[in-house]
Design a protein that fits this description.
The structure is a single chain. The protein is an alpha/beta fold and about 500 residues long. The protein has three domains: about 270 residues, 3-Layer(aba) Sandwich (Rossmann fold), CATH 3.40.50; about 150 residues, Isoleucyl-tRNA Synthetase, Domain 1, CATH 1.10.730; about 50 residues, no CATH class. The protein is about 45% helix and about 15% strand. Helix 4 packs across helix 8, helix 10 packs across helix 11 and helix 13 runs antiparallel to helix 14.
């Protein structure tokens, strides 16, 4: 490939030129949802971040196998080793089959992703569907001498691993500091060390999600699924592993240790992590009372929301910040994103109606190259958006009859917006923050046609009344040389 895509590698803490293991194929694994509750805004960010990467890699000509897992077993109440699996607990309380609970929340997750414009992955494996692979992976770690059995459970021996490798390299931690700060929890007497984590957990009699293994009837530890499924579908070495920054430790740290222990080498070449979304500077969480589900954003049905927000407003809000920066939620920020996206939608609509002239009378920047340069620089979507905003200046000036644009420049501008706004940023321009369906738009157009006819007939009273009433309802009407334009 001729381009030079820079990716920030969490492991090296530097931007690196992306070089896939095997051109033009790219293997990408992203930690998907734990399906035991309704998704919130924080869950939308990794989905959108890696959707952008998937789209851009495809645009660059790579053949991408995008694997996004579904965690439907092994995510526990207290940590990855202790407590009751959350799906099992909900199934027991609601007297349902565990997979019935999984399917309910998975359907809701898929519905939200579709609304947000997130493309489906190439493969979406479930942890519960890969128990055999996880057991085999545990066996490899035992055979390598980096795990031990204790009362039917299998634990990873962190101290022994750290003698031969380095545990903590992804997060920048060292084992001595971790040992000093790790508190002893009830039930950790099975472990040789408080840092050791479960690869396989023996199920208690009341635990309804269990599978047979050489050691006990039980279930895999949380970290095991990604090591097993990532290597199953992408090979013992693959290009990119992504997820939220909150997964760096312990989840991805444990993945590196597991895979290195089992395979004798590191699996992932580029680790990518998006930052979190906060509310008033605090991480979103139910215990803080600031947890807002995606459905609540879409309906406006939450005490912290002043209105409903369309899915494309949410997507645009997230893309206005670089994926590695923190984004702080507020109603004001979302309203600003709503208005900003509306401006791009209006300009895009005007762009489709422009008539070319013999020449362009304004300076025309190479917006295609500017947008590509921004994306090649570690997916800098806010810079792409700023270039698109700059291009709207040309569109609006030409639409207002104050400049002209050549046929070639007009074609180029249309292609740039189609490529970057729609194809790569994944924005659906028809969803202008809850603006309207075809019937609604048709009704407004009809009113403005009546106003136009009234002006022709010099019926100023009717013309002014329609204009003033629409303004009172929040419509912005603009008369043009070809008729009129309106926005909400």
């Amino acid at each position: 490939m001729e381009h030079k895509l820079l990716i920030y590698n969490t492991l090296t803490r530097t931007k690196q030129i992306f070089k896939p293991l095997k051109e033009p194929y790219v293997g990408m694994y992203v930690c998907g949802p734990t399906v035991y509750g309704d998704g919130h805004l924080g869950h939308a960010r990794p989905a959108i971040t890696f959707d952008i990467l998937f789209r851009f890699l495809t645009h660059l000509g790579y053949k991408v196998r995008y694997v996004r897992n579904i965690t439907d077993v092994g995510h526990l109440e207290h940590d990855a080793d202790e407590g009751e699996d959350k799906i099992a607990k909900k199934a027991r309380l609601e007297q349902k089959e565990p997979m019935e609970v999984v399917q309910y929340y998975l359907n809701r997750y898929h519905s939200a992703m579709e609304k947000l414009g997130v493309l489906p992955p190439s493969i979406e494996p479930h942890a519960s569907g890969h128990i055999i692979e996880q057991i085999d992976f545990v066996k490899k770690i035992l055979d390598a001498g980096y795990a031990y059995e204790s009362e039917g459970s299998i634990y990873f021996d962190v101290k022994k691993y750290n003698k031969d490798h380095r545990y903590g390299k992804l997060s920048g931690r060292n084992i001595e500091d971790l040992l000093e700060t790790t508190r002893e929890l009830d039930g950790q007497s099975e472990k040789h060390c408080a840092l050791d984590f479960a690869l396989w957990k023996k199920a208690q009699p009341e635990h309804i999600m269990r599978w047979p293994s050489p050691w006990s009837d039980g279930f895999p530890g949380w970290h095991m699924e990604c090591s097993a499924m990532g290597t199953k579908y992408l090979g013992e070495e693959f290009d990119i592993h992504g997820g939220g920054m909150d997964l760096i430790f312990p989840h991805h740290e444990c993945e590196i240790a597991q895979s290195t222990a089992a395979l004798g080498k590191e699996t992932v070449h580029y680790w990518m992590h998006n930052n979190m979304i906060t509310i008033n500077g605090q991480k979103m969480g139910k215990s803080l009372g600031n947890f807002i589900t995606l459905d609540e954003f879409f309906t406006g049905n939450h005490k912290l929301l002043t209105q409903a927000y369309a899915p494309m407003t949410i997507r645009f809000f997230i893309l206005q910040a670089h994926y590695r920066s923190t984004v702080d939620f507020s109603n004001e920020a979302l309203v600003a994103a709503e208005k900003g996206f509306a401006r791009l939608c209006e300009s895009y609509a005007r762009l489709q109606k422009l008539t070319p002239s013999k020449e362009t009378s304004m300076e025309m920047k190479n917006y295609r190259q500017l947008c590509e340069d921004a994306m090649l620089d570690d997916l800098n979507t806010p810079i792409v958006i700023s270039h698109l905003y700059d291009a709207t200046r040309i569109i609006n000036t030409v639409a207002d009859g104050k400049a002209t644009i050549s046929e070639a420049d007009l074609k180029e501008l249309k292609e740039v917006f189609d490529l970057y706004l729609i194809e790569i940023l994944g924005m659906r321009v028809e969803e202008n923050s809850g603006a309207a369906n075809d019937a609604y738009k048709g009704a407004v157009d009809l009113l403005l046609e009546i106003r136009k006819q009234a002006k022709t007939n010099k019926d100023w009273a009717t013309s002014d009344k329609i204009r003033d009433e629409l303004a009172r309802l929040g419509f912005k009407v603009k008369d043009t040389k070809d008729g009129f334009e309106w926005s909400l």
